[in-house]
Write a structure and sequence with these properties.
Layout (H helix, E strand, L loop, with lengths): L9 H16 L12 H8 L8 H10 L8
Length: 71
């Protein structure tokens, strides 16, 4: 059991999430199941799409409903 004396900041969660995505990108498997807390995913994915055109943001948002979320 991992216990911390303090909570991670949003920036620390984002950094951990980006490190996870970079690690995930190195995996040779084609299909990978990821189990996570919604807040971790929220802060991780909030790093993407900032400053994009409205068209690009719309395209990103179209992908979200196709993601398979369990649980």
């Amino acid at each position: 059991l991992l216990l911390r004396a303090r909570r991670e900041t949003k920036s620390e969660i984002r950094a951990r999430g980006l490190a996870f995505i970079k690690w995930l990108a190195t995996r040779p498997e084609r299909n990978i199941a990821v189990v996570s807390h919604s807040s971790f995913l929220h802060f991780t994915l909030s790093c993407f799409g900032q400053g994009s055109s409205m068209h690009s943001q719309d395209e990103l948002h179209k992908v979200l409903p196709r993601l398979r979320v369990c649980g």
